[in-house]
């Protein structure tokens, strides 16, 4: 009996088995994964820049060591994810090229500036909080190498979220100036964090198919709602308000209602016109150019080793 490869593929999805690199898979499934995993990797790498901005100015040696470790974790996440994308047949050079020439996206959130130390707390609490909400279900996505990479990433991400919450809690118990600085950071990061989940389901071109392929387990709007519900409660513990006059508990739905999101701003940012898009891409391109001599030296060394081994 001959079974079609697409039947084997669909049967695996049905039975919650993982698709592995050497398995047959439909070309659009492969392309969707390459798109999503590479953009996710780029987000981790570009995401090092806004926080990197505060490493030299962290308020104590302990805060500096923690932030340094967090930013290094993000480099690691980028590397696991690039490695997972490579198993789908795309080279790392090609992915970097797509980032540098603006073809591949990275998360909109990293195009906003970090203006004060409190932004490091707000990023940890809200940006890492949103990242975890989106990434925990990705541990169960249907592509094996991506799902396995996400398990470790999520463990580290939850440490990141807690360190952000703790920075804000400390500031909330501080002087009036410190409380004001933290409230200002929360005000600026709230709406951009809501946009991290992507466009509303009704205007998301990829959600339906990705749900069918079990790449996505929840829709953008479902995850956004879970995020609002958790943050609304945590904000009370922190003693900060969220900048949304329409945020309100709804006993009928069992969720918090929230006000309209500025999708115009989101579209501007993902089309390259956010406050820091140019600065972020320039920094990545410069890092690539400055690293040229390292790549050349590594290749020369590898070639020499190969000649030696052959001799
Ligand atoms: N920014 O149809 P959909 C982190 C694009 S966390 C930019 O909904 P999809 C940790 C989307 O790519 C951040 N672009 O698409 C960290 C598509 O464009 P395309 C990274 C966005 O893929 C914390 C178009 O809009 N996390 O880095 C955004 O089904 C702190 C249509 O959208 C991930 O990448 C956006 N916010 O759903 C690091 C998670 N939203 O490709 C440092 C994995 C949408 O057709 C510091 N990715 N777009 O040109 C995903 O779960 C999904 O790709 C979504 C988008 C949910 C982001």
From TrEMBL:
Signal peptide: none annotated. It holds the Pfam family PaaA_PaaC. One of its GO terms (biological process) is phenylacetate catabolic process. InterPro entries: Aromatic_CoA_ox/epox, Ferritin-like, Ferritin-like_SF, PaaA, PaaA_PaaC. One of its GO terms (cellular component) is cytosol. GO terms for molecular function: phenylacetyl-CoA 1,2-epoxidase activity. This is 1,2-phenylacetyl-CoA epoxidase subunit A.
């Amino acid at each position: 009996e001959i079974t079609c490869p697409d039947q084997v593929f669909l049967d695996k999805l049905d039975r919650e088995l993982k698709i592995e690199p050497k398995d047959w898979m439909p070309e659009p499934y492969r392309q969707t994964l390459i798109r999503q995993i590479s953009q996710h990797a780029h987000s981790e790498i570009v995401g090092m820049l806004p926080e990197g901005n505060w490493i030299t100015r962290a308020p104590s040696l302990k805060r500096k060591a923690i932030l340094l470790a967090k930013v290094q974790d993000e480099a690691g996440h980028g590397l696991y994810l690039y490695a997972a994308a490579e198993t789908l047949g795309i080279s790392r050079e090609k992915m970097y090229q797509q980032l540098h020439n603006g073809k591949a996206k990275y998360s909109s959130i990293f195009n906003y500036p970090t203006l004060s130390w409190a932004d490091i707390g707000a990023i940890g609490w809200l940006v890492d909080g949103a990242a975890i909400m989106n990434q925990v279900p990705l541990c169960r996505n249907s592509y094996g190498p991506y799902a396995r990479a996400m398990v470790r990433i999520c463990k580290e991400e939850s440490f990141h979220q807690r360190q952000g919450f703790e920075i804000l809690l400390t500031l909330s118990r501080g002087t009036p100036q410190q409380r004001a600085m933290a409230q200002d950071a929360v005000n600026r990061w709230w709406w951009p964090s809501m946009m991290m989940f992507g466009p509303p389901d009704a205007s998301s071109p990829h959600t339906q198919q990705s749900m069918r392929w079990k790449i996505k387990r929840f829709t953008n709007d479902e995850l956004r709602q879970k995020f609002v519900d958790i943050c609304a409660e945590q904000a009370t513990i922190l003693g900060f308000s969220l900048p949304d006059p329409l945020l309100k508990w709804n006993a009928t739905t069992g969720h918090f209602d929230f006000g309209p999101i500025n999708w115009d701003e989101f579209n501007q940012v993902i089309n390259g016109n956010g406050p820091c898009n140019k600065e972020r891409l320039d920094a990545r391109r410069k890092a690539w150019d400055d690293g040229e001599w390292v790549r050349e030296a590594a290749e020369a060394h590898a070639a020499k080793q190969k000649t030696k081994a052959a001799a």
